[in-house]
Specification:
The protein is mostly beta strands. Helix content is about 5%, strand content about 50%. The two termini are about 15 Å apart. This is WD40 repeat domain-containing protein.
Length: about 250
């Protein structure tokens, strides 16, 4: 096991919406729940905007990322089956819901989104239990690179060692760092996985495992503070900033 040093916590911000993940634009951090989002100023922890959706329309938003002036979120109908997914867009200034891109049926349940290298990177999760479909389990979890129209260009599977640590759930978070490294988190382990695209084949390569204070869920790198990773402590309803050691 390629276990690195644990990442110490540098900041905690209380947020009742911190149940699925966190995203940041450097000045603000966004706490994500299934059907609600809170916008918090990092400097003083004050909530400056909030959005609440209808649960029937937003049963499961899992992770978000900031792209330009929009907060882009991965959403699905989890735990319902057959699995359907959508990408939800919000105005970062007001948190007004702007639009939806429906993906319909796919290779799993959309749990994570990020923007990197002019492409969209999405994780379609599969589960061994609740929310899973017959014939597919955690091993079928897929990383997909998409164009601006959310059409699949390439896809990769996860390494066996990572899948074992995901099971019986799946990948809940994915974020590219400023130096171009890919990181993923599972559902309930206090660790994240540095991955790399393979030179050949279809399986991602595991580079190292980093211990973090959060027990899984969605993550996002701070675009302004080098090495700062945002995650959540669901039990304490907090957003957590950790200082991740360089690899």
């Amino acid at each position: 096991m390629l276990l690195a040093l644990s990442a110490p916590v540098s900041l905690r911000l209380p947020a009742p919406e911190a149940h699925q993940g966190a995203a940041s634009d450097g000045a603000y951090v966004y706490a994500v729940d299934n059907d609600r989002i809170g916008k918090y100023r990092i400097a003083d922890g004050r909530r400056v905007a909030q959005w609440q959706g209808e649960r029937r329309l937003f049963p499961h938003m899992n992770s978000c990322t900031v792209a330009g002036r929009e907060l882009v979120c991965a959403a699905s109908n989890y735990p319902a089956v057959p699995q359907t997914s959508a990408v939800e867009f919000f105005d970062t200034r007001t948190l007004r819901h702007v639009r939806t891109v429906s993906l319909g049926f796919g290779p799993g349940s959309l749990t994570a989104m990020d923007r990197h290298g002019g492409k969209w990177w999405a994780v379609f999760a599969n589960y061994a239990g609740r929310g899973g479909e017959p014939g597919r389990d955690t091993r079928h979890t897929l990383l997909v690179r998409m164009d601006d129209a959310f059409r699949q260009e390439q896809a990769w599977t996860f390494p066996a060692e990572v899948l074992e640590r995901f099971a019986p759930f799946s990948c809940s978070g994915l974020s590219w760092s400023r130096d171009g490294r890919l990181y993923a988190t599972g559902h309930d382990r206090p660790e994240m996985y540095e991955l790399a695209l393979p030179e050949a084949g279809s399986q991602l390569e595991l580079r190292r495992i980093v211990g973090i204070a959060s027990a899984g869920q969605a993550i996002d790198w701070d675009p302004k503070v080098p090495g700062r990773l945002w995650s959540i402590d669901r039990a304490k309803e907090e957003m957590v900033a950790s200082a991740v050691p360089a690899g």
